[in-house]
Amino acid sequence: MPSFELVALGCGGGPGEHNLSSYLLKRYDAHWSEGALALEAGSGIGALNKLLNDQPDLFGCPQVKNDGPSPCTAGEVYSWIKCFLLSHAHLDHISGLALTASTLGGNRTVFGARRCLENVENLFSGQLWPRLASWSDDDSIPLKLRELHNDAKYHPLFPGVSVRTMPLSHGRYDGERTYHSSAFFIKHESRGREFLFFGDVEPDSIATEPHTRDVWRAAALKIPNTLDTLFIECSYPSGTPDDMLYGHLNPEHLVAELTALAAEVVDARTRTREPNSSQEWDSDEEPVHARKRQRRDSAATPTLRGVLAGLKVYVIHCKDDVKGAYTDPINRVIASQVRALVEAEDLGAEIIGVEQGMKILI
Ligand SMILES: [Zn+2]
Ligand SMILES: [Zn+2]
């Protein structure tokens, strides 16, 4: 039985405002009306309205009532959101949150790293947008901000679901300062199963502050038994030069990252077979130690063939092809480019391009 059900309310990377990062998530063993999590909040009510027009039963509707079938409205489904989980506060990830905040009613929790939530707080300063978010419990405003720490622990999001947060690099601002995003390990507590969701991310090979290797290391030993699903961005198509990536991935860099993951999986499996060789790494380990270890490993690179078998990689956040360079939709173009590279490396992972409105069982 699956652990989670996820609907892609929006899965693009802009600039089209109709399909921005926004995923609704629930435990598979509960109904949507019992509580949903919004993983990112780019597209909101407008996109939901359109999806429900096309697929009225996407969220288990229509429900049978006294007077017969009655499809759920977008407002009704959106009201089931108990909390928001944000990787960073770029507008394509929070615009739906802003536009719906005053109509949600009741209290909702917004989870994220400190810097992300400070930016959300600035958005709701009363200038750009009314003051609808606060750190305070006492404040009678709809959005409560709750910081998630990079402490290698899982913290409850809503009943039965918890999250571990790790930082990512997502380009630079003010010259050379790293702009941070987050990766989330989202866990179904009673089943012990989880999936890994990346916010916007740049490759370690470009980042001045590389973080993806730490995330791969934290995931490695769980693949594929308790973690078989990964969501990761690939904003631009093959051949996009590094100086045009602006803190994002293209297929070449994504496959280099998946190769780094495969190497970590091999290393983790080797270490569990040889318990005296080294203890499992923690993400809090000094990066310099990690880098030394990395160099030592590269002296005897094992084969990575088939190492990621059983892992589903969902490709998200493809930027719209506004110039019309491709005849096929850009998300399919990019996913097929990633798939071809993964098959050439024979890593074994399954590559799936996410479509808006797609229902994914995890
Ligand atoms: Zn984005
Ligand atoms: Zn971003």
From TrEMBL:
Chain intervals for the UniProt region annotation (Disordered): 269-299
SUPFAM superfamilies associated with the record: Metallo-hydrolase/oxidoreductase
Gene3D superfamilies linked to this entry: Ribonuclease Z/Hydroxyacylglutathione hydrolase-like
UniProt-listed Pfam families: PDEase_II
InterPro entries in the cross-refs: Pdiesterase2 (IPR000396), RibonucZ/Hydroxyglut_hydro (IPR036866)
PANTHER family: 3',5'-CYCLIC-NUCLEOTIDE PHOSPHODIESTERASE 1
Protein name: cAMP phosphodiesterases class-II-domain-containing protein
